[in-house]
Amino acid sequence: SQIFLKDIQGLEIVRCVSDQSEDLQNKLDQKGRLTKYLKENEFDWKDANVYICGRNEMIKDVTDILKSKNISNIYKENYG
Questions:
Q1: Tally of structural domains, the chain
Q2: CA distance 18 to 16
Q3: Which parts of the sequence belong to the Oxidoreductase FAD/NAD(P)-binding domain (predicted)?
Q4: What is the CA radius of gyration of the chain?
Q5: Can you give the residue range of the structural domain that contains 59?
Q6: 3-17, 30-44, 62-76: the lowest-pLDDT one
Q7: Is the pLDDT of residue 62 over 90?
Q8: How far apart are CA 15 and CA 25, in angstroms?
Q9: What is the pTM of this model?
Q10: CB 17 within 8 Å of CB 24
C-alpha cells in the first residue's frame, strides 16, 4: 500500500535464525546468530529505530551490542 510508503523509506530488515533447517536458512539474509552478525559489521543506524523480537537472552545480548555501537532507539518484544 502506498499510504505508509513515506513512513518506511530506508527500511532495512535483517532476517537471521540459527539452528534451523538448511532449506529455511537458504531463504534468510544471514545464517547463524544475530549477535555475531552485529559484532562483525558496522551500521549507519545512529538515528534509526531498531526493533528486536525473540527470547530474553538474545534480546539482552543484542541490546548490549547495539548500545555499544551508540544505537539508542531500541524497541523490544520478548518471547520468553
A1: 1
A2: 7
A3: 14-63
A4: 14
A5: 2-78
A6: 3-17
A7: yes
A8: 10
A9: 0.70
A10: yes
